[in-house]
Amino acid sequence: MSPRATRARRARKAPRTIWLAAGAVVLAGTGVTAVAVTTGSENAGTDDNTRPAKAHTLALDGKDTKKRELPRTETQLFSLVGVSWEDSADDFEGTAQIRTRGAESGTWTEWRDLDFDIQAPETEEGDASKVRGASEPLWVGPSDAIEARVVADGKETAVPEALRLDMIDPGETKNDKGQGKGNGEGKPSAKPKKTATATPSPSGSGGDTDPSTAPEPSSPPSEPTGTPVTDEPVSPSAPAPSAEPTQEPSAPAPSQEPTAEPSSPSAEPTPPAPSAEPTAEPTTDPTAEPQEPTAGPSAPAPSQEPTAEPSASVPTDESTAKPSTQPEPAESTGPTSPAAPAIVSRAEWGADESLVADPPSYLDKVDAVFVHHTAGTNNYDCAESPAIIRAILTYHVKTNGWNDVGYNFFVDKCGTVFEGRAGGVDKPVRGAHTYGFNGYSSGVSLLGDYENGGTPTAAAKQAIADISAWKLALHGVDPEAKVTLTAAGDTGVYKTGEQATLNTISGHRDGYATLCPGATLYSALPEIRRTAGASVYATR
């Protein structure tokens, strides 16, 4: 994200909205305190093939109130990093950059900007004492050393209190080498061909260039042999390597987009592993050739329908959202919708449910879907997607202080859809993704950065269209329509209580002052809305 573009949008924000620009600033050294925090369930990592997720922190202390610097410092293994501070309400403007050393290659990356588009939820979840202000997390891959620099350069002349680096090791699960299942084998959504009842046949969830052939993810490297992070202070004068390796270029976008129409599998797929959350089954044989829908697909058999929409009116204000103790919505006689697209469940991507302290909160109705990007790297292999999502879950809980991961769904560049926040993919689960409009919407986030040169693949756009069409169809909402919602907070685009007329499939920036979901993904939204309207999952 360019500083100039960021500041142009910053002018529209409300006074209490957190916003940091990215930039390059050389800073003076400071004192640094190292702290290691281990997370994960007690039983995680008890066999040789698994490793629990962990969160490590490095406190950025120092006497200079305007800037902080961390010299090259060896750490425990991590793959995702961000910065955070004590008070999420701090109005801080500044710049932050990090560079990391690959655990396998030993090569240092170039400086990378951290984006700052996160806003705590506008409910009690966002007011909890453990909630911190934070940057967006950046996926850097397995790393064992880090360097950082942060400066306050806006109207605030001091960095926030309790500033620290947050580094996440996503661990490894027994399913990491067999990802790509889910309720329809968890593979990319394919563009359906003409037929009234057939649902898209899932296809391979592989790597960057061909989603039909999923590469085996390499096992994460062992803990680095360098000095691990401990509770003991780390000297600010920690020696740097004797010679700096050649800087690694910024991660390139994949050289070839995954096709949106992978070939149909030739054999009957293995039934998916049991899911911790309810998922719907396809209405047809998953080996059938995917086909284009006609104007009126027949309704699926009742036994295969997802949970029907709860019966309730549209809330007129965010405060009408139900509390976290509310029971799951009951079934109703709402519009009939087709079975869900292929969705990889939380159990399958390895969510650590011990991180989630409170039960989910439910909405009366999902009136809109907001599309996001994770603002990380585009240079990931699709076999890494589960690890990236596990890391984001850990970051949202352990760094941001939220109850669960913020997004309701994730999509990767191969078109695989993943369940996000717990509570049931066919339920109106309240997420933490679009400040001011979480009380009416579901959030879908595409893994990657689509502001700085990344382009969404055809498979990813199809998957976003299908999951959005299905989610809206559960509540009888047309994915090509518009809806008027009441802002429940000052978002930098709307004031509290202001009426906002939005597309039922909108970008994050439509409701909140941010560059998310990035220029190229945002420009693809008209196409995604049209595709959603023609989807077999849309309301008929």
UniProtKB/TrEMBL annotation:
Biased composition (Polar residues): 313-327
Membership in a protein family: Belongs to the N-acetylmuramoyl-L-alanine amidase 2 family.
Ranges of Basic and acidic residues composition bias in the record: 161-179
Record domain Peptidoglycan recognition protein family: where: 341-490
EC number: 3.5.1.28
Source organism per UniProt: Streptomyces peucetius
SMART domains in alphabetical order: PGRP (SM00701)
InterPro entries: Amidase/PGRP_sf, Amidase_domain, PGRP, PGRP_domain_met/bac
Pfam families reported for this sequence: Amidase_2
Uppermost EC category: hydrolase
Keywords associated with the record: Hydrolase, Signal
Superkingdom of this protein's organism: Bacteria
Gene3D superfamilies, A to Z: Peptidoglycan recognition protein-like
Sequence ranges of Low complexity compositional bias: 195-216, 224-267, 276-295
Region called Disordered, residue ranges: 161-340
Signal sequence region: 1-36
One GO MF term: N-acetylmuramoyl-L-alanine amidase activity
Protein name: N-acetylmuramoyl-L-alanine amidase
Keyword Secreted in record: no
